[in-house]
Design the sequence.
């Protein structure tokens, strides 16, 4: 089969490799119909993700048709159309019983992550050996362990393109709103107008937010957001002081600030990262802007990925202003019962961020345009059968 492999910084290759097989009784093998590239994949693409090995298969956002099932799979059979969760949950450990699926104790054997964080999170598909070394779904076929738990059957009337984002970015946008406790009448500012920020804005409006402002430095993404979601206001941080702009819109500051950007490493630290795992970002610039801008006693939800330390984090402002800050990788499976009906009824416009649909063979170009913000790219779908 063909799969998208990582071969070093900004080097993605579509290669032939053996098809995955059922190796555990709870596995299914999926024939992938759609897979996507996520902002999280870009951390890896630009060489900032430790624990990547040449030849690793990428991709944690995918869906497909069940090809074969292990003997202990209860709810799935060949031919079922399913979307998967990027976080691999066993549904048997204490975190899973608390619905903290992205914190599953079972699915990530990486000792390195424990050294870095004091704990291991769940395994994630296609996202380095730090998160378990699982083969990803940017491929013609993929193995999904604990399949009953990690696959959602897609109702017949919902086509693939309306279902695919239930694998990650839609639940993640919802999670950002849960972390920031966004509710009726709230004023919300969101950093990052990528696919996650865009969906987070949409979800905030659905949850009754009064006003939503999106912040980015890429004008076409802000224009795209305005075109798709008329109710949002935008700030281009390239030519505006974000704090001052926000305070002119919300004199007290927004009630909620959402971080949908993630970390930026200093290039010179990358070598150090690979050897010591002492991950350090250059500054906490973005986080400090959220802390500074949000109102007193406000809430902050962080879903942008930070894989280590951030220098000069303004803990004083956070403490003195009495902020509630919450963060996390999304427990995708927890939100399926809430989000699937909203997608089915059309209240959530689940195809919102799609700008490109390309064959899997064009993955290297897809990574490039998504990373370099070319060709008006917001979100790319890759189709192995196209
Ligand atoms: P993306 O890279 O397409 O979008 C990020 C956007 O942030 C870009 O448009 C970029 O121009 C903008 N940006 C950069 N610096 C900025 C700044 N200082 N202020 C405001 N905007 C800035 O990625 P995405 O797919 O939308 O994902 C966003 C983040 O969410 C990534 O860090 C990704 O790893 C993370 N993520 C987290 C989870 C989770 O479970 N927590 C799941 C999916 C994605
Ligand atoms: Zn993702």
Sequence:
């Amino acid at each position: 089969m063909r799969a998208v492999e990582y071969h070093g910084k900004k080097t993605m290759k579509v290669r032939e490799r053996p098809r995955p097989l059922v190796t555990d009784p709870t596995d299914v093998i999926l024939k992938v119909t759609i897979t996507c590239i996520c902002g999280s994949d870009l951390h890896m693409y630009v060489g900032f993700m430790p624990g990547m090995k040449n030849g690793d298969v990428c991709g944690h956002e995918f869906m497909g048709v069940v090809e074969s099932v292990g003997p202990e799979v209860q709810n799935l059979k060949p031919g079922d159309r399913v979307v998967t969760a990027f976080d691999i949950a066993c549904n048997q450990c204490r975190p899973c019983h608390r619905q903290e699926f992205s914190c599953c104790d079972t699915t990530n054997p990486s000792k390195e992550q424990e050294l870095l964080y004091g704990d291991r999170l769940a395994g994630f598909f296609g996202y380095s050996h730090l998160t378990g070394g699982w083969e990803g779904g940017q491929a013609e076929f993929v193995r999904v362990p604990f399949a009953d738990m990690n696959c959602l059957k897609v109702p017949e009337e919902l086509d693939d393109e309306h279902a695919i984002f239930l694998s990650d970015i839609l639940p993640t946008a919802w999670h950002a709103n849960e972390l920031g406790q966004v509710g009726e009448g709230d004023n919300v500012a969101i950093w990052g107008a990528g696919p996650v920020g865009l969906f987070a804005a949409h979800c905030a409006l659905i949850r009754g937010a009064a006003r939503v402002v999106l912040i980015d430095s890429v004008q076409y993404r802000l224009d795209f957001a305005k075109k798709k979601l008329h109710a949002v206001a935008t700030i281009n941080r390239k030519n505006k002081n974000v704090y001052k702009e926000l305070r002119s819109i919300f004199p007290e500051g927004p009630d909620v600030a959402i971080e949908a950007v993630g970390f930026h490493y200093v290039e010179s630290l990358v070598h150090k990262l690979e050897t010591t795992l002492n991950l350090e970002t250059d500054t906490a610039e973005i986080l400090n802007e959220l802390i500074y801008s949000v109102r007193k006693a406000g809430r902050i939800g962080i879903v942008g990925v930070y894989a280590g330390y951030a220098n000069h984090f303004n803990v004083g402002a956070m403490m003195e202003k009495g902020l509630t800050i919450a963060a996390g990788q999304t427990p995708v499976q927890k939100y399926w019962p809430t989000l699937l009906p909203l997608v089915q009824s059309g209240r959530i416009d689940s195809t919102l961020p799609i700008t490109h649909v390309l064959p899997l063979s064009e993955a290297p170009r897809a990574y490039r345009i998504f990373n370099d913000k070319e060709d008006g790219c917001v979100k790319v779908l890759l189709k192995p059968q196209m």
Summary: Residues 332-344 form the longest helix (13 residues). The pocket of nicotinamide-adenine-dinucleotide (ligand 1) is lined by residues 38-40, 42-43, 168-169, 172, 191-197, 215-218, 221, 237, 260-262, 286, 303-305, 329-330 (CB under 6 Å).
